[in-house]
Amino acid sequence: MEQRDKYISGICTPAIGEAGKTGDWSDLKPVIDHSKCIPETKGKAACFLCWLYCPDGVVTMSIPVEIDLDYCKGCGICAEECPPNAIRMVRKVECDE
User: Which terminus of the chain has fewer CB atoms gathered within 10 Å of its CB, N or C?
Assistant: First the structure.
């Protein structure tokens, strides 16, 4: 029998838009305070937990971090996982006013 490394696992990347444009499914949307965002304040690739944990793959791993609101379902995982609380969830009605 072949030995396997128990610490190696498969990784998949979700494809944006598999369920169509889902951005209008929720009444919440994430808003980024770029002055608190670690990659932006440090000016280098660091943190990106929002990107890592986003179940829909709509967060960019770039500086500045961006979220594709056309496909974001507003689950709030990005805001929950953000160490400096740079992402907060707001009601879409508040944003449009």
Answer: N
